[in-house]
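batch job 7 of whatever, protein = Translation initiation factor IF-3
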Amino acid sequence: MLPVDRALAMAREKGLDLVEVAPEANPVVCKIVDYGKYRYQLEKREKKQQKATRLKEVKFTIQTGEHDFQTKLARIREFLSAGHMVRVSVFFKGRQIIHIGKGEEILARVAAATKDMAKVDQDMTSKGRTLQMLLVPVKGGRVEDKNAQSVSEEI
């Protein structure tokens, strides 16, 4: 533990800066570093953390049971609350492809169950033996309707 004036003198001798890294700590923690380089590293770290928004995928089949559906729905909600986009896919095996309506029902149920925190960015599309839909999280967890009118309440 050094007095502030002595730490500043040491920093000036080395041609560096005295930077406070933990102001809440008792005693306050400071480092002798090149401030420009320190800021660059902090910005680089923040950019790396912001890049966490990724595309997640949750897969269903038309034979997915109710409990499994609810479990997968909980995972979708978890991904959306973390800010990730979610691709919901329904796979058809063998002759199941003739029951494409059941796959559409599953995607409609997922869209309805997550409408409070996500919007459908890409509607149901068929790609080979797969039916897909893309959900995008909405900031603040609320979907804003473009046609909705604002209502102010007077007290």
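notes: The domain at 4-50 is CATH 3.10.20.80 (Ubiquitin-like (UB roll)).
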